[in-house]
Amino acid sequence: AQSVTQLDSHVSVSEGTPVLLRCNYSSSYSPSLFWYVQHPNKGLQLLLKYTSAATLVKGINGFEAEFKKSETSFHLTKPSAHMSDAAEYFCVLSTGGFKTIFGAGTRLFVKA
Amino acid sequence: DGGITQSPKYLFRKEGQNVTLSCEQNLNHDAMYWYRQDPGQGLRLIYYSQIVNDFQKGDIAEGYSVSREKKESFPLTVTSAQKNPTAFYLCASRTTASHQPQHFGDGTRLSIL
Fold first, then answer.
1. What distance in Å separates the CA atoms of residue A88 and residue A104, rounded to the nearest whole number?
2. Cβ contact (<8 Å) for A43 and B101?
3. Do the chains contact at B42 and A102, CB–CB below 8 Å?
4. B34-72 tens-digit pLDDT
5. A61: phi > 0 → left, psi -120 to 50 → alpha, else beta; which?
6. Contact (CB, 8 A) for B90 and B105
7. What's the angle, vertex CA A80, arms to CA A77 and CA A83, rounded to 5?
């Protein structure tokens, strides 16, 4: 069975400190994994994607994620949080078909 | 610029009324999707379409209907049979190539009057 688990529903960091949003996946097939960000009353914006090339993926706005097959993880990181990073983040799994599997989301709070 | 346009941004429905949410894309994508988002529940798939004149039910299709008469357009009708329609509705599209991400519109917020 295919599934995505975002391990934290809420994460709170101070501005200028590192961000870690955790995502584990389960897939019987070679997965593609994506991270999206959603600001209030907006659609989802693609941050980065892993599609079986380099395991360390760099995205927009300074975010990056590392695909670890042995740990079935695809955690999202950023070295230094900015106030504008406060949003909801979704980890998404695709197994090549037309449907995708969304994680439940992690809300990131950034304190001044 | 290429993208997905959803309209209206806000919509109000009276009891017993059907309402239609518009979704248009100029990305030349074959596949299109409708999702419902409720607070704290992530995204749930309502309908999807892989090609013109064809569509499939998602996980929560009851009370909704769609059409796909043109590649660019995938309107969603929320019927009076949907008893709890208040939610944020998101439309997405993607190419049919494997392992490609979906692209999203900015959503329509539907409320009951």
1. 10
2. no
3. yes
4. 999 998 778 999 999 999 999 999 999 999 999 999 999
5. left
6. yes
7. 105
